[in-house]
């Protein structure tokens, strides 16, 4: 019976040697894939989620992740025109609440080193995001007693993005625990959608 129990544990032990599990979190810089009515980032932009890494020969590995991101966006502008009616002033405001999931898949290579272990990675990132958007347009004739008209619109939208991702960092071990700060660059399929991530990962 004891030998049977040990035999059943062998696949689990082999799996632990092949795969490591962890979590990553950090902050994001730059404009992400959001382009709903020229809305721009207006709040702290962070990300966090689980990761799994499959170790391959020759210091290569395959890293998969599911990173959640939440942020607010805002657009605010004023414009006016004279014709065909007297001077009208318009104020357009937009607010968005965006939730996104990034699913990166990257090949990682660790360099041979004592102490800290530098690494580089490259792969592809798929993003699924959705937004609740509120748009307000106010028009008036610019006088103190003039009429004012306000138009309000609320809508939800979602979109998928995909693009290459590259990065690098340092890794060190505390027993079975691995800690790794890294910098990652992602370009999603929209002009100007460059995203820079400063991440910190823990795995075991």
Q: Mind summarizing the main beta sheet?
A: 10 strands, antiparallel
What's the alpha carbon Rg, rounded to whole Å?
Answer: 25 Å
State the low-pLDDT regions, or none. 1-16, 33-37
**What spatial form do the alpha-carbon principal axes imply?**
elongated
CATH architecture: Beta Barrel
Measured as a percent range, the helix fraction is under 10%
Structural class: mainly beta
Topology order in helix (H) and strand (E) letters:
HEEEEEEEEEE
Protein name: Outer membrane beta-barrel protein
Keywords: Signal
Pfam families: OMP_b-brl
InterPro entries: Beta-barrel_OMP, OMP/PagP_B-barrel
Structure overview:
This protein is mainly β. The chain is 8% helix and 68% strand. It has a single domain, classed as Porin. It has one helix spanning 2-18; strands at 19-29, 40-41, 46-55, 60-65, 67-81, 88-110, 117-140, 148-174, 177-187, 194-203. Strands 1, 2, 3, 4, 5, 6, 7, 8, 9 and 10 form a ten-stranded antiparallel beta sheet that branches. Strand 5 and strand 6 (88-110) form a beta hairpin. The radius of gyration is 25 Å and the shape is elongated. It comes from Paludibaculum fermentans.
């Amino acid at each position: 019976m004891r030998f049977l129990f040990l035999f059943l544990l062998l696949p689990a032990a082999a799996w632990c040697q092949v795969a490591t599990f962890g979590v990553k979190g950090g902050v994001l810089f730059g404009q992400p894939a959001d382009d709903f009515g020229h809305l721009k980032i207006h709040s702290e932009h962070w990300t966090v989620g689980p990761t799994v890494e499959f170790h391959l020969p020759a210091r290569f590995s395959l890293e998969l992740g599911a990173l959640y991101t939440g942020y607010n966006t805002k657009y605010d502008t004023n414009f006016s025109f004279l014709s065909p009616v007297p001077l009208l002033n318009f104020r357009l405001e937009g607010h968005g609440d965006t939730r996104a999931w990034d699913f990166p898949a990257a090949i990682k290579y660790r360099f041979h080193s004592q102490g800290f272990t530098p690494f580089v990675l490259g792969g592809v990132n798929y993003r699924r995001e959705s937004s609740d958007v509120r748009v307000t347009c106010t028009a008036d004739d610019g006088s103190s007693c003039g009429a004012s008209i306000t138009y309000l619109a609320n809508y939800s939208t979602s979109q998928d993005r995909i693009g290459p991702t590259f990065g690098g960092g340092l890794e060190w071990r505390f027993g079975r625990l691995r800690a790794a700060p890294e910098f990652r660059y992602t370009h999603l399929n929209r002009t100007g959608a460059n995203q820079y991530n400063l991440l910190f990962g823990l795995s075991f």
